[in-house]
Amino acid sequence: xxxxxxxMRTRPVFRLLVSMSVPMMxxxxxxxxxxxxxxxxxxxxxTDALTAVSLAYPLQNAIVSAGVGIGVGIxxxxxxxxxxxxxxxxxxAATMGIVLTVFHCLLFILAGxxxxxxxxxxxxxxxxxxxxxxxxxxxxxxxxxxxxxxIAFEKIFQSIGKMKVTMLLLIAGCVINxxxxxxxxxxxxxxxxLGVAGAAIATVIGQICAFLxxxxxxxxxxxxxxxxxxxxxxxxxIIRQIYSVGIPSTVMMLMPxxxxxxxxxxxxxxxxxxxxxxxxxxxLQTFIYMPANGIVQGMRPILGYNYGAGETxxxxxxxxxxxVCAAAIMLLGTVLxxxxxxxxxxxxxxxxxxxxxxxxxxxIISAGxxxxxxxxxxxxxxxxxGDGRRSLAISLLRxxxxxxxxxxxxxxxxxxxxxxxxxxxxxxxxxxVAFFLLRFYxxxxxxxx
Length: 449
Description:
Elements: H1 2-5, H2 13-45, H3 47-83, H4 87-114, H5 116-120, H6 127-142, H7 145-159, H8 163-186, H9 196-220, H10 236-268, H11 272-284, H12 286-308, H13 312-339, H14 341-346, H15 352-365, H16 372-384, H17 388-401, H18 403-414, H19 416-439
Membrane topology: Multi-pass membrane protein
InterPro entries: MATE_fam, MATE_MdtK, MdtK-like
Subcellular location: Cell membrane
């Protein structure tokens, strides 16, 4: 089994990174479409429906945050143990990761039943918007087991370098969602028109199908890690290892939800229009950040394996190449946001007022895309090395510690534009701190510069 993964310490670094990252970049681009398609169809139902989906985003993102966060902890533990040659610990990490994920599924069912309406009622007083938002959110929370278990298996397969498998299965789930969306939302092919609830049902069906496909693929072949019933008993050392990375990673991914919730309260004081703008932006920015996160996902198993194997030079080279690739993606995103923002917002059938506000917001926020490459890559680096605290520190600066206070202050003098300015301000501060954190980590052993 170690021989099966030895390519991570023998293949040329750049070619290895590309072979691991490109499938994940394609996957993330497809997932961006997965995330954005609900909003596009919802916009055809009217601005109220689009606002309802936007309000549901924080709780929907909480599912992904918990799944990916713990999944990153699972992946990090497996990669490090495989690099160190410990097959048993790698198998224990995979098995315990699935057990923890099942426990999280139960928690989200309770959240869907008891938290949905009190939470969403904080952000709108319009009864129609609130009902649509509650309907959408309850469905995705109570049936979140598909998303959570799909992500757990995805991270297990990524930890052993099976990126093409995860790409194909993610695409399969996305395609199912995209096909079902118009059918269930607008009542095509004899189905009832379910509106916003139809978008939610299409989403969870796609996720459940992807999870079931992972089960089929896993059962058909022997892989470098195994799920074993004898390892279901709690192994507190493995649990601590998973959560030491997984909890900070989950908090890191929850930051957009917390950030959006707070910013929605500020923006609502100006107009519900700006709430819709922020919701659309967070759908759009996935087209830029998801490919960059694809690089991070391709980078993590390489870093973890070589860190476990003591290959410091390869760790450094991997970080360096990852920075260059992420910067290229972010530069492209900046150029597109500055040159064709109208065409981008036209995807949402934006009226004149939404178009004007959205174009202004996108042009301001895009100023922070390029510098954010450092924060994104360095945060992923610390996750791969098993240091969740430093990764969390970078993410808090990017999406909380700087952005929220600056938004409060500038919005008092500049209106919504002050909130948009806070985004690049947070990215700049996070990039500076991230640079020095890695520069002095283990005496600079992994600093790429």
